[in-house]
Amino acid sequence: MLQLEALSLRLGTFSLSADLSVKAGSRVALIGPSGAGKSTLLGAIAGFVPAVRGRILWHGIDFAGQAPGQRPLSIIFQDNNLFPHLSVAQNVGLGLRPDLRLSPRQRAEVAQVLERVGLAAFATRKPSDLSGGQQSRVALARVLLRARPILLLDEPFAALGPALRAEMLTLVEDLAGDGGLTVLMVTHDPQDALRLCPETILVDEGHALPPGPTAVLLADPPPALRRYLGK
Ligand SMILES: Nc1ncnc2c1ncn2[C@@H]1O[C@H](COP(=O)(O)OP(=O)(O)OP(=O)(O)O)[C@@H](O)[C@H]1O
What we know:
binds adenosine-5'-triphosphate, alpha/beta, 35% helix, 231 residues, globular
């Protein structure tokens, strides 16, 4: 279980509170108006935004004092955080060793995971020689290799067209299911939330609410969400 316990965050004049928990192995969307604090909340979980008050716990262990790289999570942003000067295989290999001194066994793991996301034939290419969807797959491959139990997605597929986005969400669902990952995904698209995430956290007016069933939330949105969705 991931617990945000009486959490309070502040960035300049912006503040956000959260008191909620997310079940291990579940997939949860974060939805809310632009500037509501969705990325800030992921940033706090990842360790980039310090908490003013409260705690973040994973299976009862406090994240405080754990640097971002030590936390049991991976994060993918919209730009996929790929290094342009490294090949696809190297970008993925970074998930295992930042200095890229991979053992033969680790190289084999990289090859295996590239196969898993359908990029076996692209290992030596640079990210710029790939389509947007393929770049997203590289980022997912790296996450898979890191094998951290929490996956944070910050509008990862926003730049992709609808069909490709649906395909990527299915891939995330498969990979998350296989690995038993806990997924938190920021999205502006209610359909994406419905597709991947049975539950949704509504972030609005300085609060992140506890997760509720996505279908129920979208079928009968509270006023704040109604405004945001333009319903
Ligand atoms: N470094 C910063 N210093 C001060 N304020 C910041 C900083 N970063 C973000 N903010 C403010 O914090 C608020 C929350 O931003 P955040 O990016 O978390 O929102 P969001 O819900 O993810 O928005 P969007 O959907 O547009 O990506 C915004 O009002 C933003 O202007």
